[in-house]
Amino acid sequence: MKPLTRPARLVPGARVAVVAPSGPVIEERLQAGLDILRGWDLDPFVAPHVLDRHAEFDYLAGTDADRAADFQAAWCDPDVAAVLCARGGYGTQRMVDLLDWDALRAAGPKVLLGFSDITALHEAFANRLGLVTLHGPMASAVDFLKNARAQQHLRATLFEPESVRTIESAGRGVLVPGRARGVTLGGCVSLLAADLGTPLARTGAAGGLLLIEDIGEEAYRLDRILTQLLRAGWLDSVAGIALGSWKDCGPYEDLRAVFADRLGGLGVPVAEDFGFGHCEGALTIPFGVGAELDTDAGTLTLDEPALA
């Protein structure tokens, strides 16, 4: 696994698109997010179907075709420097195969930001476009709207990425001690498992520093998810693992036992509580950048800034 191409950092006045590849967006939250982006001296605009609702499936922000068209038009707009996802939920996997990857590649590198259900796009962008992407707070999500730490870390990553090359864990928990070097990847672990065998997914995490988190998955379901990744060989030769947040997944001591059982035998460092994902003050993590994981120090140190 090699480091990917880094998009350019944002500059004041940059035009950014807000899209909804997954679930429906609450207009009040969207407007509040746009106000924050304008306060950062960005020029945000909303894609045409962001506030749509699917006529039959109310968990989708409009039809698959419209969500895909919004995303593609935003990415292929030469005036757009970044495409920011409004929220997660569910739906990215339904629209990702509708994208024209040749057209996206021709549009050149730019910033993609999102997490949770957006994991499918992170994987597709790494596999098809070879681009670094950002796993971080989304434009209409509560953490982005209300949490100063999440806002500050995201803003620094977008505008001054050299200032956040070292990412520190919240609690410095250690499941398996050690140091590891590799290229960052990951996201919602249930989405990584759901992506197995699909045309846009990579075949494994060999040589990677895997950063995983999730929400609403009980211990036995996380056991099943990790077991699936193990049985598929997807975790073979992974360099190291950092665990993020596990909101609404049950008591952490139960989860920790699962992680120790399923990941401890890989023989690689495993760090805990790195403060990314579905948690308050979530940190922004670049995927596709070379880095070193040090469990004793509780740090993930990037070889170079997330954005060029």
Please explain how this structure is put together.
With 308 residues, the protein is an alpha/beta fold. Helix content is 31%, strand content 22%. It has helices at 27-39, 64-76, 92-95, 101-106, 119-129, 142-146, 148-159, 189-194, 219-231, 252-263, and strands spanning 15-19, 43-46, 80-85, 111-113, 133-135, 166-168, 173-176, 179-188, 208-215, 240-247, 270-272, 285-287, 290-294, 299-302. It has an eight-stranded mixed β-sheet with strand order 6-14-13-8-9-10-11-7. The protein has a four-stranded parallel β-sheet with strand order 2-1-3-4, with helices on both faces. It has a two-stranded antiparallel sheet with strand order 5-12. Helix 9 (219-231) runs parallel beside helix 10. The longest helix has 13 residues, at 27-39. The chain starts with 14 loop residues before the first strand and ends in a 6-residue tail after the last strand. The relative contact order is 0.17. The mean pLDDT is 96.
